[in-house]
């Protein structure tokens, strides 16, 4: 029995050897005149190889945090201490990201939509999952609320949002999804959209939620660009955020470094151009309103996210350059201003958020921020199991952290060095 490598399907027989090549493995076997015996043992070899692959790829995620916060997480979020085993046939960051987009299931959800007006005459679409049948929190006024912020062009229909909703609602909590302007199916009433650095709409939404349920704690959960927005908001509002904790998945820590990574040829081919097309489609959908402030035809010629941000986002929000916008949008330089417990999940092989941009030194010096990093997982994927259609590692971690923050508020504040008078 010989070597295992990563190639494609091709079977051939030469002399006294049979070569069986598969998309995920290559087995070279020697035999003595009987190919049938080799074929008979192949299923067993496949099982052994799969088990070997899972063992090799699985590892315990690295947790960077203060000692007290780490102890809290290990006690109340057991998945932190467990080995993460990515899907054995889908473990590379790019492949995890692509497969997740295609295979991940979308649980059925019935939302209650609410449109709220903004001070500039615009409107924001909120999708609520009220969870009125919650046995744990039957009283609506005190039912904990999870505020979910989707990614770059995402909304409440994304698979990761729907699975997160399931995790939260089955624990008895209420959920509300904050759709960025123009992405929730609503009309754009003013020539203003959204960006990772502008937190005014999020502040308005939090104020609205707290006005409806002043006695209900709120936890913010942001995904990708939604995570950037959440962290920037928590840094600017500090002790006045109105949130008890924050959770992020696959946040790009440094926008400039993420842009550079996304412009690498393969990443541009697989991801960047499609995301840019999605941004351009959103502009086209609201063309009549947006053409008052930008050159639409010039914007629609953008081939990368950076070009789009140069021609559209940075101009709309008053930045002198795209570099200025990216610096302002990057949460890595603001973490020290946050004042609530925050857990962040990233993968080292994320093609959107490069590992060298993780602010490890900063996080090590902060009592209230923790970064959990897996070796594999891609961008908003973290797939596991042979058929990764259901809940993944990121949703399991999300559910456990949300429950820990809501059910043990005093313990988590103490672990993060937050005094009661600092409470949001």
From TrEMBL:
InterPro entries: AB_hydrolase_1 (IPR000073), AB_hydrolase_4_sf (IPR050960), AB_hydrolase_fold (IPR029058), ABHD4 (IPR012020), Ig-like_dom (IPR007110). GO terms for biological process: medium-chain fatty acid biosynthetic process; medium-chain fatty acid catabolic process; phosphatidylcholine metabolic process. This is Phospholipase ABHD3. The active site is at 224 (charge relay system), 350 (charge relay system), 379 (charge relay system). GO terms for cellular component: membrane. It catalyses: 1-tetradecanoyl-2-(9Z,12Z-octadecadienoyl)-sn-glycero-3-phosphocholine + H2O = 2-(9Z,12Z-octadecadienoyl)-sn-glycero-3-phosphocholine + tetradecanoate + H(+); 1,2-ditetradecanoyl-sn-glycero-3-phosphocholine + H2O = 2-tetradecanoyl-sn-glycero-3-phosphocholine + tetradecanoate + H(+); 1-hexadecanoyl-2-(5-oxopentanoyl)-sn-glycero-3-phosphocholine + H2O = 5-oxopentanoate + 1-hexadecanoyl-sn-glycero-3-phosphocholine + H(+); 1-tetradecanoyl-2-(5Z,8Z,11Z,14Z-eicosatetraenoyl)-sn-glycero-3-phosphocholine + H2O = 2-(5Z,8Z,11Z,14Z)-eicosatetraenoyl-sn-glycero-3-phosphocholine + tetradecanoate + H(+). It is an enzyme of class 3 (hydrolase). It is found in: Membrane. Phospholipase that may play a role in phospholipids remodeling. May selectively cleave myristate (C14)-containing phosphatidylcholines through its predominant phospholipase 1 activity, cleaving preferentially acyl groups in sn1 position. In parallel, may have a minor phospholipase 2 activity acting on acyl groups in position sn2. In addition to (C14)-containing phosphatidylcholines, may also act on other medium-chain-containing and oxidatively truncated phospholipids. It is a single-pass type II membrane protein. Gene3D superfamilies: alpha/beta hydrolase. Residues 78-193 form the Ig-like domain. PROSITE patterns: IG_LIKE (PS50835). GO terms for molecular function: acetylesterase activity; monoacylglycerol lipase activity; phospholipase A1 activity; phospholipase A2 activity. The keyword Secreted does not apply. Coiled coil: none annotated. Keywords: Hydrolase, Lipid metabolism, Membrane, Phospholipid metabolism, Serine esterase, Signal-anchor, Transmembrane, Transmembrane helix. It comes from Cyclopterus lumpus. Belongs to the AB hydrolase superfamily. AB hydrolase 4 family. Its EC number is 3.1.1.32, 3.1.1.4.
